[in-house]
Amino acid sequence: MQTNVLKPIRELINEALPANMQFKPTKDFYQQVGINKHRFSKIMRGEIQPQRNELYTIAAHFQIPAHKLL
């Protein structure tokens, strides 16, 4: 049986950024995506699964095709 393993959100965000740039979320970022700091940290560490609307918002912010996050 073949399973479809998606890349973690952290990896996709890092790939979307210019080389040698590390993502550090700001207060404005949290307001733009509508996810608070604690929840976003848990999503990035893979401790919780993001909701579908959160995935779409993150994808749009980083200009990542949404299907890569779903």
Question: Key terms for this structure?
Answer:
70 residues, mainly alpha, 4 helices, 50% helix, disordered N terminus, DNA binding, HTH cro/C1-type domain-containing protein, Lambda_DNA-bd_dom_sf
Shape: globular
Overall pLDDT metric: 87
Helix content: 40-55%
**Low-confidence spans: pLDDT under 50, at least 5 residues?**
1-5
**Helix/strand structural class:** mainly alpha
Measured by DSSP, the beta-strand proportion falls in: under 5%
The biggest beta sheet is recorded as: none
Q: Can you count the beta strands? A: 0
**Number of helical stretches of at least 4 residues:** 4
Organism: Spirosoma radiotolerans
GO molecular function: DNA binding
Protein name: HTH cro/C1-type domain-containing protein
Describe, in plain words, how this protein is organized in 3D:
The chain is mostly helical and 70 residues long. It has a domain at 25-68. It is 50% helix and 0% strand. The chain is built from four helices and no strands. The chain has helices spanning 9-16, 27-33, 37-45, 52-62. The radius of gyration is 12 Å and the shape is globular. The protein starts with 8 loop residues before the first helix and ends in an 8-residue tail after the last helix. The relative contact order is 0.20. The model is unreliable at 1-5 (pLDDT under 50).
